[in-house]
Amino acid sequence: MAIVLGASRGLGFLVAQELGRRGHDLAVVARSAEGLEAARGDLEATGASVLALPADLSSRPAAESVVEAAARHFGRLDVVVANAGIIQVAPVRALDPQDVADAHDAIFWSAVYPVLAAVGVMRRRGVGRVVVITSIGGKIPTPRLLPYTAAKFATVGFAESLRTEAGRDGITVTTVVPGLMRTGSTRNALVGGDRQAELRWFTALASLPLLSMDAGAAARRIVADGLAGRPEVVLTPAAKLGLRVHGLAPGLTQRALALVDRMLPAPGVDPPQPGHTLPEQPWWQRALTALDRRAAVRHHELDDETPRR
Fold first, then answer.
1. What are 196-238's pLDDT values in tens digits?
2. Are 185 and 10 in contact, with CB atoms under 8 Å apart?
3. 192 in a domain, yes or no?
4. CA gap 146, 85 in Å, rounded
5. Is residue 308 part of a domain?
6. Could you say which of 32, 71, 198, 282 is the most buried, measured as most Cβ atoms within 10 Å of its Cβ?
7. Angstrom distance (rounded) from CA 31 to CA 294
8. Residues 263, 89, 8, 159: what is their CA dihedral angle, to the nearest 10 degrees?
9. How many CA atoms lie within 13 A of 239 on its CB side?
């Protein structure tokens, strides 16, 4: 049995779907009960038995209760995939400390609490697979993504440190480092500053085939390498190249990214709000981002929308 966190839409939904195809029963978790129900039919079509568990994973009692309920329902726990999160796309001047705290709640603590609870269950059987989905933003500082980057850096450290100790209990921990993927999740990103301009560059990058990866292919790779117990999975050639350059010359990459920031829209001060609440983009932007918009339909991004802040 596999628990997938953040499974109502996007990459989490696709990872759950792939695990179902490989014969795993599923406990799927997200904040939205309606979003989980919208995804349930596609997940059950894989032949898996599906238990939907709506919960706010940033609450330790809720996270631990979800793991306990899933293990009790299925009688075992083999895999846990931590994928819950949010993303805020905004210049620093449009953010406040609460935005950073919100990102840590939704990304870092929403991985730490349930994963540690799952490890406790797995330890009793002496076997298990933990997969923590982070980001290239957790390895390389990225302009206009400060709260997300800070939370993902912390999550990378948690996953890599956990692997060094979990092995003695027969548990592997795989850190997944995706680059850009066409999940359709850009419409649910929280966008601040000059909101429409920030959303335009972000969705354009997420739609370009040479820079972004098909999310279904990413999910298949994540599941295969996670079940194989690999220590790290880096997705997209651009992410692999970026990691190598940053490892050799971190000062150079930070200077280069500072130049990238200067090429992005002039920093505004409007606080973040979901991209889907903004006015419709012009026709040329819609044409440029067609792949990402189609992915949003397939991956239930329209069925589980981020609420307005």
1. 999 999 999 888 887 889 999 999 999 999 999 999 999 999 9
2. yes
3. yes
4. 14
5. no
6. 198
7. 24
8. 90
9. 20
Determine how many CB atoms are found less than 10 A away from the CB of residue 93: 11
Cβ contact 108:151 at 8 Å: yes
pLDDT tens figures, 236-283: 999 999 999 999 999 999 999 999 999 999 999 999 999 999 998 888
Residue among 2, 109, 13 nearest 63 (CA): 109
CATH number at residue 134: 3.40.50.720
Contact between 173 and 116 under an 8 Å Cβ cutoff? The reply is: no
Token digits for 119?
Answer: 């490890």
Active site residue 113: no
Burial status of residue 72 (CB atoms within 10 A of its CB: 0-12, 13-18, 19 or more) = exposed
Q: For residue 121, what are the CA distances in angstroms to 95, 118, 236?
A: 39, 5, 33
Place of tokens 């117990």: 229
- How far is Cα 219 from Cα 225, in angstroms, rounded to an integer? 10
List b or e across 160-173, with b for residues whose CB sees 16 or more CB atoms inside 10 angstroms. Answer: eebbeebeeeebbb
Number of domains the chain contains: 1
- Residue whose structure tokens are 């800070």: 150
> How far is residue 103's CA from residue 96's CA, in Å, rounded to a whole number?
12
Domain housing 116: 2-298
Query: Within a domain: residue 146?
Result: yes
Residues 3, 128 contacting (CB under 8 angstroms): no
- Cα–Cα distance for residue pair 73/51, rounded to 1 Å: 8
- The single residue listed with the structure tokens 């370009």 is 208
* In a domain? residue 309: no
The tokens of 114 are what?
């349930």
Find the catalytic residue in 148, 153, 158, 202.
Answer: 148
What is the identity of the amino acid at 84? A
**Using CA atoms, how far apart are residues 136 and 145, in angstroms rounded to an integer?**
11
